[in-house]
Amino acid sequence: MKFMNTMFAQLIQMLPEYEFKKLVHMYHGNRYTKYFTAKQQLMTILYSQIKRKDSLRDIVTGLKMQSSKLYHLGLDHVCRSTLSDANANRDWRIFEGLFYRLLARCKDLTPRHKFRFKNPLYTIDSTTIDLCLSMFPWAKFRKRKGAIKLHYRFDHAGELPDFLVVTEGRKHDITVAKDPSFPILPDSIISVDRAFIDYQWLYSIDDRKASFVTRAKSNIQYEVIGQQNLPKNKGILADEMIRLTGYYSAQHYPKELRLIHYDDRETGKVLVFLTNNFRLAASTIAQIYKARWQIELFFKWIKQNLKIKSFLGTSKNAVLTQIWAAMIYYLLLAYIKYQTKWRYSLLELTRMIREMLFERIHLVDMLSLDFKRLDRLKYPDPQLTLF
User: Which site among 65, 199, 351, 387 is 20 to 30 Å from 326 CA-CA?
Assistant: First the structure.
């Protein structure tokens, strides 16, 4: 019988190994390491993500039971204390860098967004993960509560998170967005909610030749300086060119803006959108903002299917390591989906990989056949076969 790697080994082979070695060298990931290397730590945390393990002891026991299928990967023996020390001390930026290296591969395969225009479309938003303040004292949120915030820039082409910042829970969204390291690409369109309305920041987006779409606040002060023709049967009630008249808002955003009143027939509400884009149709602006819902679905998915709500360590380094490893696994799933043109959901893919993780079956064979025929493709482990 021809030898075939396990599903887990095939997943590891998809990672950019050369780039990972460069990151380990850059951040001294294997300095003073005798046994448990950065790659072994990465494989262990990915295993915990795939199998949804809740504790270090659970991880170690699970790996021990599969040692005959892991020896060629160097994971035949993992100690709980060694894994705990690695999570607490090995620089989490190694895994952050691997995330962006893998993201570059995924971007080569992703389809375009659903809109006709060619501009890149992004949504910026954050999600909060509650923590126990006594166990995570560095993650301050309120007086007796701890939390961390994951601030994402979500690319609608392929529905991928292409930028992430992890902060304390009390960090405001606009504070992170205004940081110079937060990328705003020229000619892109950025969708944000009303929490991001800071006219100085919005003007910086316009200054960088990008567009924004957001909901206008109810207390916005403005004067109408022009109107555009309204399309029929599109739900557009008004399409106005305005200038801000508030004392501070007029100073922070001195240029013209576009205000669109939209009748949302699904909810029965009238929504007012604010944008600096005068080129796209008013109905398209409304649909861009409604597409923000994709990032909410993304937040729901990662919280339900990735291990980012309970952590294997209490230090900041351990938490960040686990979060970036979870995002790496998400990109692996997306890479498989787009590379193989998998037509089902990522949820189905995660379930299949979890069940077949240590089977000696080719990934393409698993994805091309239905569930009833998968058992026929399971290759028996030569070391466990009785003749």
Answer: 65
